[in-house]
Amino acid sequence: MTAPESARIDWSDGQEQSPLAGISVSVRLGRELSAAMFRLDPGAVVPRHSHPNEEFGQVVEGALTLEVGDERGHLVAGDAFLIPGDLPHAAVAGPDGCLLLECYAPPRDPFAAPAKEATS
Amino acid sequence: MTAPESARIDWSDGQEQSPLAGISVSVRLGRELSAAMFRLDPGAVVPRHSHPNEEFGQVVEGALTLEVGDERGHLVAGDAFLIPGDLPHAAVAGPDGCLLLECYAPPRDPFAAPAKEATS
User: Fold this and answer.
1) In the predicted model, what is the mean pLDDT of residues B37-54?
2) If you average pLDDT over residues A35-59, what whole number do you get?
3) Could you tell me what percent of chain A has a pLDDT over 90?
4) Phi-psi region for residue A14, left (φ > 0), alpha (ψ -120 to 50) or beta?
5) B66 to chain A: which residues are within 8 Å by CB?
6) Nearest-by-CA chain A residue for B34
7) Average pLDDT for chain A
8) How many CA atoms does the CB half-sphere of B5 hold within 13 Å?
9) What angle do CA A108, B107, A107 make, to 5 degrees?
10) What pTM did the predictor assign?
């Protein structure tokens, strides 16, 4: 048994998309927020992009290099971040890959439409 | 090095509150969502309550019994849930405790004001 049926999220239920090389993601859209579980292969690249949605991220396994604006940091399992809306950001998975949980508000399906290319 | 300074969340930076017996929580408020990392001792109880904010949860470590409305489920590390706003819910940590990550939208500090008692 997992969570009560009315609230259950099963990340392994086959709803994963593979929108970019080396990246798979499972997305759940709520009314006020969305949640997404990303599995990144070693060295997988999330190109620089931006969106108006605020973005929270938690590294569950592995490691990630994250660029936000003109800053860069290295995150490992247990590290977290909160990116304001419209701030360009990018990421590269570490040598063992990365399992990354994200939440967006307002809700966002990260690959429902092409990401806006960052201009700065 | 962890996340870039402008986006960094350090769950271990001493901002934890201990609002209920056996429960400590660290909260970060954004503009559109908030994130909270709960550490529950074995058997710790989150009393039944409700709030208008939508609530996402991810079990990071340990186990949790979760009641949502009139349903009950048992979650372990890797399991997740999404509770609509205003739906009464409660939780009890498993025998080894539970590390639980939650996000709320709109943003919510779960212990900034007394939780509304569920009437059903």
Assistant:
1) 97
2) 97
3) 80
4) left
5) 3-4, 7
6) A56
7) 92
8) 2
9) 10
10) 0.91
pLDDT tier at B68, thresholds 50, 70, 90: very high
Task: DSSP letter for A6, please.
Answer: G
CATH of B17-109, one of 2.60.120.10, 2.40.240.20, 3.90.180.10, 1.10.10.10: 2.60.120.10
Are A11 and A27 within 8 A, CB to CB? no
* Two structure tokens written together for B6: 């402008």
The domains of chain B are located at 17-109
> Are A74 and B1 in contact (CB < 8 Å)?
yes
The answer to whether A8 contacts B84, with C-beta atoms less than 8 Å apart, is: no
Q: What is the least distance, in Å, from the CA of B2 to any CA of chain A?
A: 5
B105/A9 Cβ within 8 A: no
Find out whether B36 and B30 touch, Cβ atoms under 8 Å. Answer: no
Query: B30 and A79 in contact by Cβ < 8 A?
Result: no
Q: Is A9 in contact with B80 (Cβ distance < 8 A)?
A: yes
Q: Which residue in A33, A54, A80 is closest to B9 by CB distance? A: A80
Report how far apart, in Å, the C-alpha atoms of B87 and of each of A70, B19, B65, B120 are.
41, 22, 16, 9
Task: Give the closest of A7, A60, A68 to B83, CB-based.
Answer: A7
Under an 8 A CB cutoff, do B35 and A87 touch? no
Label residue B118 by pLDDT band (50, 70, 90): low
Nearest CA in chain A to B68: A4
CATH class of A17-106: mainly beta
Which residues contact residue A70 at a Cβ distance below 8 angstroms, ignoring those fewer than 6 apart? none
